[in-house]
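Title: Prediction job returns without error message
Component: structure pipeline
Severity: low
Priority: P3
Assignee: unassigned

Description:
Job completed but the reporter wants confirmation the result is attached to the right record. Sequence as submitted:
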Amino acid sequence: MSAAQKNIEAAYAFAMSVRPKVGGFPYLAEVFRQAGVTRNRWALPSCQTIYVTSAGNVVQQLPNLVVGAADVPAFDRDALIRALRIDQAGESTFPEFLQATWQAGVVAYDVDFVERRVTYMGAVDETYVEAYPAVTVHWPR
C-alpha cells in the first residue's frame, strides 16, 4: 500500500470517528483537506473515485450502481437537491446517497476541498454547484 493510500485510509478512519451523523460531510472534507487531498472526483454509475493528493493520486472502485447497459436518467436539479438535503440530515447511507444522485441524473461529481465546493454534473453539460461550510477539526496525524 502506498503512502498516499495509507494517508487516505487514516484520514477517512479519523473523520468517520469525529463526524456528526447530521451535517457530517464538512468534517470528512476538512480532515481530507488537512491530509493533503485537494480533490475527490466521482464517476457514476461506476462508483469510481479518484483522490488527488499531495502524496500522489489514488483511485478507489466501489460496487457499481448499474451493471450492463442502462439509460442515463435526465438531470433533475430538484431531485438532486432533495438527495443532498436527505443526506445532510443524516437520513441516508452513502450508498443510498450515490443511488439517489444517479437517479437525479448525476454522472459525475467533483469535490474541491480547497474551495469547499462540490460540482455535480449531468450527461449533457448540466451542473449544480454547492458550497459547504468550513469546520474546525484537529486531525492528530
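Comment from assignee: result matches the submitted record. Residues 19 and 27 are 5 Å apart (CA to CA).
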